[in-house]
Design a protein that fits this description.
Length: 277
């Protein structure tokens, strides 16, 4: 074996020893950190064998995780749907039924009923608690009393008289969509265009576009929120873009209905989507 080969072997052994030394130093450093951490614990914990301590921590974590899952799945879902809109929009939607507990026999403000499409259904059917919030401007604040328990909000619009009332409709809808309770809970909102069976009724697409335009104007005029207004804590839409309902943090959809003829299929679909049987 010549001198060069011996030198290469020595270099290789030295590098190996160097790596082993670095690994040993790192291991020693970790062990020292463990000891320092362990010494900071109370004396009664220091007397517990490490394995038992680790097992206890794992059991504690799994127990907390288990209770979290149980609470998550046992959380009661709301069956309350809020029905609101301007006065005269036709919020008292009729389902053509005269059974007690249906919409037609409800108390003026709230009551529980079974969806008309499910009155003949066998098996478990979950009643819906419907709250008809007054549409008068002085009474619209009553909505705040029921929002915390709401599974959804149905905002009824008169499809016939929409144009002359579009500004007032948009302002009321804007107030609802910017309420902290609606945004934080992601409460779904259904804009229900009523009286579409009338010849002079506007389509839901026309109403949707007009509402988006009006709300876009309101965004610009309400960019500074009064400190006294505790209900409107959120802004709508994406900064720099024209407003669209798809920009809302909660789900907002537009549908049609005819309360006079009892055609409220899309309303019932919305209710059943958010109030599970």
């Amino acid at each position: 074996m010549d001198m060069n080969e011996k030198i290469e072997i020595l270099k290789s052994e030295f590098q190996k020893l160097s790596k082993d030394g670095q690994a040993w130093v790192q291991h020693l450093s970790v062990e020292m950190n463990k000891q320092e951490w362990f010494q900071k614990l109370p004396p009664f914990i220091q007397n517990i064998p490490p394995l038992q301590l680790y097992v206890a921590l794992v059991v504690l974590f799994l127990t907390m995780f288990f209770f979290f899952i149980v609470r998550l799945f046992n959380r009661k879902t709301s069956n309350t749907i809020l029905l609101t809109g301007l006065s005269g929009s036709g919020k008292t939607l009729r389902d053509g039924s005269a059974h007690q507990g249906t919409v037609t026999s409800m108390e003026p403000n709230e009551g529980s009923f079974v969806l008309h499409s499910e009155t003949t259904k066998k098996g478990k059917v979950k009643p819906v608690h419907l709250v008809d919030v007054p549409g008068h401007s002085r009474l619209q604040t009553k909505l705040d009393d029921f929002l915390p328990q709401a599974a959804g909000v149905v905002f009824v619009v008169d499809a016939v008289e929409f144009v002359p009332k579009s500004r007032a409709v948009s302002e009321y809808l804007y107030d609802i969509l910017t309420k902290a309770s609606v945004v934080k809970k992601n409460i779904p909102v259904l804009i229900l265009c009523n009286k579409v069976d009338k010849v002079t009724a506007h389509t839901k697409e026309f109403i949707r576009k007009q509402l988006e335009k009006e709300i876009d104007k309101l965004r610009a005029s309400r960019n500074v929120v009064s400190e006294a207004d505790v209900s409107n804590e959120f802004t709508l839409g994406i900064p720099g873009e024209t407003f669209a309902f798809s920009h809302c943090r909660n789900k907002v959809t537009v549908a049609e209905a005819s309360g006079g003829t009892g055609e409220i299929t899309q309303l019932e679909l919305f209710i059943r989507e958010h109030v599970k049987p």
